[in-house]
Each structure stands twice: as structure tokens, then as C-alpha cells.
Known about the structure:
Layout: E1 6-8, E2 13-17, E3 20-24, E4 31-33, E5 40-42, E6 45-50, E7 55-63, E8 71-79, E9 82-91, E10 94-103, E11 109-112, E12 120-127, E13 130-136, E14 144-149, E15 157-163, E16 171-180
Antiparallel strand pairs: 1-6, 2-3, 3-16, 4-5, 6-15, 7-12, 7-16, 8-9, 8-15, 9-10, 10-11, 12-13, 13-14
Amino acid sequence: MFDKYSWLNEPANWSVEDDVLSLKTDKATDFWRTTHYGFVRDSGHFFGVKTAGGFTAQVKVSGHFHELYDQAGLMVRIDEQRWVKISAEVNDGALFLSTVVTDTVSDWSTGLFTGSAEGFWLRVTVEAGVLKVQASTDGQYWPLIRLAPFPVSDHYWVGPMACTPERAGLEVTFSELSVTEPNGKSLHDLS
């Protein structure tokens, strides 16, 4: 499954076995562009595959999230100034669902996560300049967590992402990964 994937900021410790990607984050890794903090960071771990235009991608994520800003999920990337990261992320002592949409500067939206860090699913669809983000606690029911404009491109780079700005050592696995043509589901179709 991961034959066509390549790393941006390959972690020191990672493996693929039976279509499951496992990794441990390196120290001081992050993706962010200027907003609020003023800095630019493009050092997070991202294992992506190139698409031919629009797509739907989804993955099951399992991790041991403990420290501030521990995060893992999916990334969609055009280049270093236009990307999205969708993740579970520790913020203010709790686990949140987090989406950062970046088009030269980063925004940040969060919502308290009520599922288990031991297994949750993320889905992103990009089509015709629109980004749709969904999350699931069971792989069946997919509530919407973000709808945003995103630049139209003839290709995107999409796949698992993890980073730990405050430490090293977040252990995370990614399984049930798929990248397909856009699924064509309506905004309120939660399947």
C-alpha cells in the first residue's frame, strides 16, 4: 500500500508492516505558518502520496497522546505555503480534534474530542476548491468537523502526519488508509 508514498521529514523510528505505518516522533517537529506565534515551522513528519486532482482520503489513527501539542492525523499539501493538517491534538490538558488550514498563513480550529485515542478515523475530501473534513469514532458514522475553501490544484500530496513541538516520542500507528477519487457524498451524508 505504501509503495508510492514518500517522506517529508522522515522520522528516525518508523516501520510499515501488513499495511500499518508505525512511527515515533522526533523532537521539536511541527507544521505552522506565522499566525499568532509569528514563526514558520515545516519540520513535522508527513508520509504522502501524490494525487491527480481531487480525492477522498481516510485513515484509522491510534496513538499515545500526552503532552501539549502532541498530534497525529492526515495532511493535504500542495507546497510549503498551502497545506492542511487534520489531527487529534493535546491542547490545554485534553484531546481535541484539530484542523489547521494554511494558505500562506495558518488558521486553527478545534473541538473537544470525545472518542478514544486508541482508535479513531479521519476523512478528508478535496474537490473543486472545497475541503471537507470528517471524523469517526467507529469507522461508520462520519460527522462533519470542517468545511473550508482550499486552492484548486492539478495534484495534491496526501497521507499520514504526526508531530510533537514540545517533545519527542509520540508513538502512533496509521491503518486502513485509502486514497480514492472524491466519494461524491453530500454534505449531510454521514456514512
